[in-house]
Amino acid sequence: MSIRAKLAWTFILLLIFGITAISSYSILFIRNYLLNEGEQQIVNDTEWLAITIQNLRNDEQFETNLNEAARTSGYRLAVYDDDGILFAEVPYYEQLEASERLDDEIQTGIRRQTEIILANEPESEQLVTYAQLHSEHNPARYLKVSIYKDQIYEPIKTIRWIIYTGMFISIGLVLIVSILFSRYISRPILQLESAARDISEGNTGQTLNLDRKDEFGKLADSLNRMAERLRADNLEMKRLYEKQNQFFADITHEIRNPLHTIAGSIEMLMMDNLDETQKRKYLLTASRQTHRINRLFKDLVTLQRYDSDEQFIEKRRFDIKKVIGLIKELLESEAEEKGLVLTAETKSHIVTADPGKIEQVLENLVSNAIKFTNEGSIQIRSKDAGDSIIVEVEDTGIGISKEHLDRLFDRFYRTDKARSRDKGGTGLGLSVVKSIINAHGSDINVESEPGKGSRFWFNLPKGE
After folding, report:
1. 3-class DSSP state for residue 387?
2. Do 149 and 2 share a structural domain?
3. What single-letter DSSP state applies at residue 304?
4. Does 141 share its domain with 171?
């Protein structure tokens, strides 16, 4: 095959592969983006739909007004009374049967939550939200809002045709340009063909030495720079590959150990001559290991959201004293079981942050302090630092050696792997803490001395 044909086909194939890859990625990205936006939109719409339905009068116009709300919003609405019995469902034209009774677990969940409940099961064809109604005008007490995911994905069809049309037009243009271009440069480019082929096959160690001052000399320099960049990229890819392999190996190791323990406990429970005390012991062991696996995946989900989700945190104003008080109440009994004193020294400080994520941070820090403190006390504090509030957790535990501090927040890093696993740790707690605090635009700090305890602290901006 001539150099002209090679150049032409090279341009065409590279374009096809590039556009196909970009198109596939774009469609997948847009699909996920539309679903995320749809989730946020249905939650927001459920709030105003709940307010609207609460104000509807229980008269002959109730279902008409309800159907109008469904038509305007584009959602399927089902309203249930205080006993969870279906009160009304719209729109009328949909040939779907709503559940005649709302599941008891869903009712309980709705009553416990102060916010809208979003249900998005991967295998489900619909997005569903639930909300509790407080109406003096009608017997409606629960609202179910749903929409088919296909409706959310509808814009992808148009986007796909736009992308494919652009792709075919680009291929046609490149076909014409590549033929003309290959005719123009085919003769002098032969001098570089051999070296370029070697580089394309991965031989990035080769260096071109062409004593030319024209464009082909510049091309040779460009090829040399490209080879150097490829070498650097290959080294970086190798480093990332090794890091990824280590990451998956750590996950496998973290899951394998508790699974072995659970399997052993089950085998012991199958023994006929096992007394009740031993049964309870093995059941408790299996339960603890199950909880450990659950925490591992919960931490992995948090880290994955930090890496990919721009809406990882949702900031709002709240009193840090309430969050600290909640953590103290939650973990005080665990501390007392070890003979530790858990105290909270805080005043009312209004900060701007994600209260749920900050609660997760403090729970991780205080839980770690309890695990690695054998005697003494653990203190949670908040104090004013001018334009920010400092939140800190200090313990009188075993402390951390200096050589471990630099890698303390790395994923799956442990200062003492055997002891950490014995205490039920996942190796991700402090990584989750760092990710959350970094997402708030701050950083987690630590001071520690072996045998004297540790102090972790971070800053949060004051609420304006």
Report:
1. coil
2. yes
3. H
4. yes
Share of the chain above pLDDT 70, in %: 76
Residue 95: is its pLDDT beyond 60? no
Same structural domain, 147 and 235:
no
Give the residue from 255, 53, 33 showing the smallest Cα distance to 144.
Answer: 53
What are residue 353's DSSP bridge partners?
316
The answer to whether residue 195 is domain-embedded is no
Cβ-proximal residues to 214 (8 Å cutoff; 6+ apart), any chain: none
- 382 has pLDDT over 50: yes
- Overall pTM surpassing 0.70 (yes/no): no
Is 196 a member of any domain? no
Provide the CATH number for the domain around residue 269: 1.10.287.130
For residue 219, give its domain range: 202-310
Q: Are 327 and 382 in contact (CB under 8 A)?
A: no
Calpha distance 399→453 (Å, rounded): 4
Helical residues (DSSP H) of 147-214, grouped into ranges: 149-152, 155-200
Residue 197 resides in a domain: no
407-417 in b/e form (b: 16+ CB < 10 A) is ebbebbbbbee
Alpha helices in 348-455 (DSSP H): 355-371, 402-405, 417-422, 429-439
Cβ partners under 8 Å of residue 319, min gap 6? 348, 349, 350, 351
- Chain centroid offset of residue 265 CA: 33
Same domain assignment for residues 280 and 345? no
**Are both 345 and 453 inside the same structural domain?**
yes
